Amino acid sequence: MKLHPAPVAKVTALAGLASPHATLDFLSMAQHHASALLTGFELMSDFSMRLVGRHFPQLRYPFGEPHAQTVLLELSDAESEEHARALFERLMEQTIEQGVVEDAVVAENLAQSKAFWDLREHIPLAQAEEGLNIKHDIAVPISSIGRFIDETDAIVAQAAPGARMVTFGHLGDGNLHYNVQAPEGIDQKQFLKEFQTSINTLVYEQVHRHRGSISAEHGLGQMKVDEAMHYKSPVEIRLMQTLKAALDPDNLMNPGKVVRWKENAA
Question: Which string of DSSP letters, residue by residue, matches 126-194?
Answer without folding.
Answer: HHHHH--EE--EEE--GGGHHHHHHHHHHHHHHHSTT-EEEEEEEGGGTEEEEEEEPPTTS-HHHHHHH
